[in-house]
């Protein structure tokens, strides 16, 4: 499971908003939610996930930042969450293929389509 936009679910503390403000030609702005790229954003998100899922981690769930792997009790439940006969699959933001680990092109799309100025 991928907690898509997970970082954007964490509100910035009111006293910290001024620390991440930025200025453009259109005015001054600050983030209301924790943006990607802050020095400790990944660690903050991981701590929150560890706190939220503390009763499940190591038993039913493994959490790696915004990716989660659910562990199930029965063989039938395992089959329901599996995909068989696929050429590739997404895991931890990468594409896993029979040839190895590759970049997930969806993650690169914004940069590829940026164009030059």
TrEMBL record:
CDD domains on file: RT_LTR
Family matches, as Pfam families: RVT_1
Lineage top rank: taxon: Eukaryota
Domain Reverse transcriptase: 1-117
Stored PANTHER family: REVERSE TRANSCRIPTASE DOMAIN-CONTAINING PROTEIN, TRANSPOSON TY3-I GAG-POL POLYPROTEIN
Protein name per the record: Retrovirus-related Pol polyprotein from transposon 17.6
Species, as recorded: Mucuna pruriens (Velvet bean)
Gene: pol
């Amino acid at each position: 499971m991928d907690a898509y936009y997970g970082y954007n679910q964490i509100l910035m503390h009111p006293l910290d908003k001024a620390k991440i403000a930025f200025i453009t030609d259109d005015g001054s702005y600050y983030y209301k939610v924790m943006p990607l790229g802050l020095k400790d954003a990944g660690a903050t998100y991981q701590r929150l996930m560890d706190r939220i899922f503390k009763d499940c981690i190591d038993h039913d769930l493994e959490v790696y930042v915004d990716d989660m792997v659910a562990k199930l009790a029965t063989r039938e439940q395992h089959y329901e969450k599996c995909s068989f006969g696929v050429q590739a699959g997404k895991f931890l933001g990468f594409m896993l293929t029979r040839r190895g680990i590759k970049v997930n092109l969806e993650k690169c799309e914004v940069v590829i389509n940026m164009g030059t100025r």
